[in-house]
Design brief:
Chain A: It is found in: Cell envelope. The complex is a heterodimer of chains A (373) and B (365). Chain A has 373 residues and is α+β, with helices and mostly antiparallel strands. Chain A is 25% helix and 12% strand. Chain A has a single domain, classed as Alpha-Beta Plaits. In chain A, strands 8-1-10-9 form a four-stranded mixed β-sheet. In chain A, strands 2-3 form a two-stranded antiparallel sheet. The longest helix of chain A is centred in the last third of the chain and has 24 residues. Chain B is built from 13 helices and no strands. In chain B, α10 packs antiparallel against α11. In chain B, 61% of the residues are buried. The chains are: A alpha+beta (373), B mainly alpha (365). Bound molecules: iron/sulfur cluster (SF4) (2 copies).
């Protein structure tokens, strides 16, 4: 069986003269799909996708250690990109009422409240009559409520969820101050990672998702037919289908602004430069220096996430400096692009297909004394 | 990311103050999980939450929320997995019947195979967010996207299947004439053409599911193709037993047994995988669907090799059981994947374990 390739050659209706969207196929220089990199470090994803002359790869370095959680990025993104409302919810914990990235939330500021001091700081709240923080109890109440929603909370960032808030009782208020301890706040503005090996892009069957000349990953709304494959292809849970609209949406790295020589709206709006935009090489250097600096200052828990080109997605175009393990911010600790295993998956499928053919032949051959009847 | 030589803080739980960030393993649901960790009693006092939750020891998450987006696919997709497999199984069976002179079995397979193909197409289009743009699938052929590969397999398979069915629908009075004989020959060619693509149609759907970040599907990538082709064979054969006369259905009965054996064996292997992901298959709705599928398939296969040759009612019952078993198997597999995206444990625990293994080997520990 020729499982490995679609039997049809190249589909009709390529992009035509508009050179902005070369897919991972049908490229003018005639290199086949096997010439493409599916996994591992990749110097130049734009060139791998067929852009010959192109600007340097750009991205975000989000330094969460200086984020103040003002959500200017969320607002700027919605304004510039005309992203519709994603549900006016009170999620009942923290200051995060966006919840998650989604079809209608392309930046999401996470608020993590933890019962531990930040670096060597002393929050000084332990002595107050209220005691410091009851976040643990709050978090638990909310987590329980979220698990009961239809998509287990996965609808956050795309549509409304009802968790029963606002209410008159503070979640977790029943627990006394004596149960509370010291705490710290972590804030982080999450965004599409614009992966070097993007699971969403690899699986898109229409070519709606494409790699831009800047190395970013963008959906073309006029092409997407809402098949939903990308939603399951993304190892970070970023892209989603918008109910009512039916198409998939996510951060475009402000493709229109980049083409006009502007930086993305979120980076421009960020008052603390927590979101830094620029050529990826520069950002990586800057991040390394910042990490060193923080370690010297005693913030031992600082670490970079998505910076390493050797990781499971070949490094992120948008990477982060975090102050705790990634899963605490809702990020997968070690994401791997599903395409890594594509060749081996087709091998297993080929074996299963051959077995099916052989079995069918066998059940007929056996009848009638070893031949046709 | 992790292996860039950064000093890493000791795994959270050593400094106890930090454990609270882990909301999803504390409190009620924790008790609910610890009470039972076997594959048995899946009803507990905290309802479906307890039964779908992975019984993982401490792991950390963002307020217990999912890391991944649950699939947006609805029931149409598992239903398509079934009808697509059924169509493929029926096409193979009818081609064999055609070549070995079993006209009734051939007719059944061709008509049902084409009917299932039509249903498949409708289901696929219905699940799109923008159904009117279904033809956008045809604008590219993309080897990295199993959905694109599958689209082209369907495009190749469809005309053959249609031609074979058209030949069967020809009124008897026309058959004798020259056009009738021509169409008959074209039907045979179409049937064989479809049969050539049928194994691809039956197996690509496994890659379609595995080529995702959905933990339970991706982790089962080695077994799913065998599960799906086995299930396709069992359902195609079940259809043959249901609709064709007993005298001609001997190959269908044998194919049913072989397919069911493959399906059942692969289903066992899926849930025996060492990783946490395998547990998504043995809990909750997925578990119940798959159990029912196992019993139906096993019963259907046993009947196929014993009583089904004796009479039409027994054969029909066995065929129905195989069809239902195959359908439920697909729904069970689908459900397991969905459940594994809703609970962050399936994402965080295996990935964290992988990182810890790496850093143990690395120079910094
Ligand atoms: S795979 Fe996810 S994170 Fe990576 S580019 Fe696609 S949507 Fe963004
Ligand atoms: S939903 Fe749209 S962008 Fe996503 S894979 Fe399907 S066609 Fe591509």
């Amino acid at each position: 069986m020729t499982d490995e390739h679609g039997p049809g050659g190249c589909g009709p209706g390529e992009y035509g003269p508009d050179e902005r969207s070369p897919d991972k196929h049908g490229r003018p220089d005639g290199r086949g799909p096997r010439g493409h990199s599916l996994y591992g470090p990749l110097e130049d994803p734009a060139a791998d996708a067929g852009h010959r002359e192109h600007p340097p790869r750009v991205g975000f370095f989000t330094d969460t250690s200086v984020c103040i959680g003002c959500k200017a990025c969320e607002v700027a993104c919605k304004e510039w990109n005309d992203v519709p409302e994603d549900g006016l919810d009170l999620l009942g914990m923290s200051f995060d009422n966006t919840g998650m990235l989604g079809a209608s939330s392309w930046r999401h500021v996470a608020f993590v409240e933890q019962e531990r001091p930040l670096g060597r700081q002393d929050a000084g709240l332990a002595g107050l009559p209220t005691g410091p923080s009851g976040t643990g109890q709050t978090a638990e109440v909310v987590a329980d409520a979220l698990r009961e929603t239809p998509r287990g909370g996965g609808e956050l960032g795309t549509g409304p969820v009802d968790l029963g808030f606002p209410s008159f009782d503070l979640p977790g208020a029943a627990t006394g101050a004596e149960a509370r301890t010291d705490f710290r706040w972590l804030m982080a503005s999450d965004v599409c990672k614009h992966c070097t090996h993007a699971g969403c892009l690899d699986v898109c069957p229409t070519g709606a998702l494409f790699r831009t000349e800047f190395g970013s990953v963008v959906v073309q709304p006029d092409i997407c037919n809402g098949c939903g494959y990308c939603v399951s292809g993304c190892p970070y849970g970023v892209i989603d289908r918008r109910p009512g609209d039916g198409r998939a949406w996510k951060c475009t790295l402000c493709y229109d602004r980049l083409r006009g020589g502007l930086e993305p709206a979120c980076a421009q709006a960020c008052p603390t430069d927590s979101i830094q935009f620029g050529p990826l090489d520069e950002l990586r250097e800057r991040a390394d220096r910042r990490l060193e600096h923080l370690h010297e200052a005693g913030v031992e828990e600082a670490r970079l996430y998505g910076r390493d080109p050797g990781d499971g997605v070949g490094g992120d175009g948008a990477f982060f400096l975090l102050l705790d393990e990634p899963e605490v911010y809702g990020l997968p600790p070690d994401p791997v692009v599903p395409t890594r295993d594509l060749p081996s998956m087709w091998k297993y499928a080929g074996a299963a297909a051959s077995a099916l053919l052989a079995a069918t032949a066998a059940v007929f051959v056996k009848s009638g004394g070893g031949g046709r009847r | 990311m992790s292996d860039d030589g950064l000093p890493r803080e000791p795994r959270g739980d050593a400094d106890a103050a930090d454990v609270r960030a882990d909301t999803s393993t504390s409190g009620r649901s924790h008790e609910g999980r610890d009470g039972r960790d076997g594959h048995d009693g899946h009803e507990s006092r905290d309802g479906h939450r307890g039964e779908t939750a992975a019984p993982a020891a401490g792991f950390r998450s963002y307020y217990g929320r999912p890391v991944l987006k649950p699939p947006v696919w609805k029931w149409q997709v598992p239903a398509y997995l079934f009808t697509g497999g059924l169509s493929a199984g029926a096409a193979l069976l009818s081609a064999g019947a055609d070549l070995t002179g079993r006209p009734a079995l051939c007719r059944t397979g061709r008509l049902a195979g084409f009917g299932a193909l039509l249903a498949s197409t409708c289901l696929l289009i219905a699940d799109l967010g923008r159904p009117e743009r279904f033809h956008h699938m045809l604008r590219v052929a993309k080897p990295t996207s199993p959905m694109s590969v599958g689209t082209w397999i369907l495009v190749a398979y469809g005309p053959g299947s249609g031609l074979a069915a058209a030949a069967e629908l020809l009124p008897a009075s026309w058959r004798a004439g020259r056009p009738g004989r021509l169409l008959h020959r074209a039907g045979r060619a179409g049937g064989l053409w479809a049969a050539a693509f049928a194994p691809g149609l039956a197996s690509y759907t496994a890659v379609l599911l595995s080529q995702t970040a959905v933990p339970a599907w991706h982790e089962a990538r080695r077994e799913l193709p065998f599960l799906f082709t086995g299930s396709a064979a069992a359902s195609g054969a079940g259809l043959g037993m249901l609709l064709a006369p007993v005298a001609e259905a001997a190959p269908a009965r044998r194919l049913a047994a072989v397919g069911a054996a493959a399906e059942l064996a692969a289903a066992r292997l899926v849930e025996r995988r060492p990783g946490l992901e395998a547990r998504a298959y043995t809990r909750g709705r997925a578990h119940r669907l798959r159990r029912a599928a196992d019993f139906l398939t096993l019963g259907g296969a046993l009947a196929a090799v014993t009583v089904a040759r004796r009479g039409r009612p027994a054969a029909a019952a066995a065929g129905l059981a195989l069809l239902a078993g195959s359908a439920l198997q697909r729904f069970g597999t689908f459900e397991a994947g969905v459940a594994s995206t809703k609970d962050p444990a399936y994402v965080v625990v295996p990935q964290r374990a992988r990182l810890d293994r790496l850093s143990e080997r690395g120079p910094d520990r």
